[in-house]
Amino acid sequence: MYTLHIPQCYKLLGQHYGGSKRKFFKKITWFWCFCRRKGSFFQPKKTPEKIFTPYQMGPFKLSHRIVLAPLTRSRAIGFVPQPAAATYYSQRASEGGLLITEATGISPTSLGYPCTPGIFTEEQVEAWKPIVKAVHDKGGVFFCQIWHVGRLSHYAYQPDGQAPISSAAKAASGVVYLPDGTGPVPYPTPRALEAEEIPKIVEDFRLAARNCIRAGFDGVEIHGAHGYLIDQFLKEGLNNRTDRYGGSIENNCRFALEVVKAVADEIGADRVGIRLSLHQFYSDMQISDPLALGLHLIQGLNKLNILYTHFVEPRMGPGTASIETEKNLLPYRKAFKNTFLAAGGYSREDGIDAIESGYADLVVYGRLFLANPDLPKRFALNAPLNSYDRSTFYTQDQVKGYTDYPFLEEVSVK
Ligand SMILES: Cc1cc2nc3c(=O)[nH]c(=O)nc-3n(C[C@H](O)[C@H](O)[C@H](O)COP(=O)(O)O)c2cc1C
């Protein structure tokens, strides 16, 4: 390799142009202008950040690694998803992009919030079908988050006005809104499930997973996070049982693993994920060693060979406020053998870093995706984002704050 310096160039080109300096400089000026016009053509091609590149998640070929978080939107009138959900989810769908639904009840005892959907009646399954189709029509991969709220409910939601169920007969602190939107009222004291009743709840999860596949979903995410029924078994602060479902890490994980196994047996392990929030302590749901519990759980999940685990960052306090902490998800990421999803407080740049460094395989976005239906595109272009409107997170309006967040083109045109 050698370098030609300007005088040499001049000499060579000058010879070529018959020794005329004027002709030489004219040609050089033309060439310089041409290069400037072509601009990027001459610049080295920038490789896209890994978050924008394909990822093979088990049988699913994803085209990027930006995932829609499960987001309760309280638009399901009578616990049945409404047609506007087809617009809402398809707006957020992209070719090869993974979407996870809002938390969706598995059984009549599973509900505890007004206007949240279920997937345990034929009417609900039928209502989900066009929503799933709308996402598939845009090439999206769609998982349903299946959910049992446990003690975070009220007699008014329960069949025959019974007490809600949980791992222990201890009421949650805080308040609950009733199915008709009235309230709030304090949480009632739940009834601790008898050990013999637990297989029935496991069966409800299995049937709900079957219904998800019937509705056309690609898979399910089991909601094991945020203080709901599975979490109520995992966390020793609440779970004071002395039978095989409490009293040790192994026993506290038993219900979660039974649910995962039943669901995996029903629809195939490569269609099953689970969401966990081991570092979020809801009222009395403390836990002395989240890492030990998490690693035991992961050992079981690895044996069942499920598709993914979806962890909420320790920095997320209960709710959506961030807290200071040194803790992170790396030990869980290293221990779990299949796809690892991380969620909670991610910006575009944090997400890019998380993927580049191998901290996670996919990054899950909640509030940013809620307010930006075309979030993957905006991230790819590093375009400005719409801000979210907290006051419309949980209203029943089928348009405002739901399907009316503008796309980038609409913003640019204004
Ligand atoms: C409006 C709203 C509804 C939510 N609903 C659910 C839900 O149904 N299931 C769930 O697991 N998490 C739910 N979350 C938590 C989000 O999935 C996510 O973990 C949280 O918003 C933090 O991520 P972010 O910082 O990207 O928003 C909800 C959060 C918000 C803001």
UniProtKB/TrEMBL annotation:
Keywords: Flavoprotein, FMN. The keyword Flavoprotein applies. Residues 50-385 form the NADH:flavin oxidoreductase/NADH oxidase N-terminal domain. The keyword Lyase does not apply. Belongs to the NADH:flavin oxidoreductase/NADH oxidase family. It comes from the Eukaryota. Its cofactor is FMN. Gene3D superfamilies: Aldolase class I (3.20.20.70). This is NADH:flavin oxidoreductase/NADH oxidase N-terminal domain-containing protein.
